[in-house]
Design a protein that fits this description.
- By secondary structure, this protein is an alpha+beta fold.
- Helix content is about 15%, strand content about 45%.
- The longest helix is centred in the first third of the chain and has 19 residues.
- It is globular.
- About 5% of the residues have low confidence.
Length: about 400
Amino acid sequence: MIPQFIKICTCLLFIFSYWFLPPLHAGNREPIVQLPFKQLVGGVILVQAKLGHNPDTLNFILDTGSGGISLDSTTAQRLGLVTVASDLIIRGIAGMHKTRIVANETLHFPNLTIDSLDFHLSNYEMISQFNGEEIHGIIGYSVLKRFVVEIDYDQNLLRFYSKGSFCYPKRGFLLHPTIHKVPEQPCELRDQEKVSSKLLVDIGAGVCLMLSQEFAKKHLDMTRRKKLADKLIQGVGGTVSMQITVVKKLKVGKYKFHNVPAYLFDDVYQLTTYRKLAGLMGNDLLHRFNTTLNYGEEEIHLLPNSYFREPFDYAYSGLEVCAMNGTLFVCDLAKDSPADKAGLKVGDIILSVDNDFSQNLYRYKTALQKKSGTIGIIIQRNAQVTEYKVETIDIRVGK
């Protein structure tokens, strides 16, 4: 009787420890450093660091979609950094250009210094306005290849471990992407048919899915869709016009998502074509997992977190709000969109969204994405204050 009781207690203890105790990391070894981060719109990660001998604290986006590491060109000029010409060509959804670099620099996190980094230069003014935060640079492959990086979205913490094999939590799922500076993961999409293709794993993109129009024409049932909603997206090289729709099903590893918002773009610069990708999956989807990036072993581990069952955003207004010098304003307005029909104009100063006068860009963007139906927006135009009623639409239904 007693041995049987001990067996039951042991079993219960095992179940308790499996579900409730924190997972063990890499054989219980401690991280090199643990860093706080901030989530921007779409789950994009903002982390702070210092550059070289400069005392200023700079804002960097952590980005698996970046094949290197970059610095805002205006920031480099302000800091008086020496730049040199290079043959490096930066390719993005909105353009491609040859870039100058800041060579052999050092990045300083609290208790962690990373040296011998070559930063390429890009202009991040529009990205800063879109996020309402001054973006000084983007951290990608040049840093990620040197460590195992654990992203904990529940606690907004990054943990850096030394390279090598890693003891992942038993729960979750281990992906085996191909990594040529950026990770490419086989996935399954279903719309009019089931199709397997590779997607770029891009935690620097605050969207769920971006698919090339070429892929969409072949594999998505465009005939069942009403007029697709238009939207401008900010990317490397500038802004690009896209259409937003919904894909019936996406399977990543063992995880399935239904009715996933997707942006369709004309791949003019062959970002996906030459790598034979369908497109990318971004952090509006990926931040639903606490994620471990192990580039050295070509592994990414996904563990569902508190955001896992968060509903997708289907409301469409056609309005984009940006921030500059503390002022929130309409920076983009899609033609014939609900916001356009309501009478809003590019340049209008936003005073309130849905009776929220906080002047918090993140809250305004979230309200515009999550609320289908009527939403009140108070603006100032030529010293006159006016409230407009915008009838947002559900992209699953159209209008």
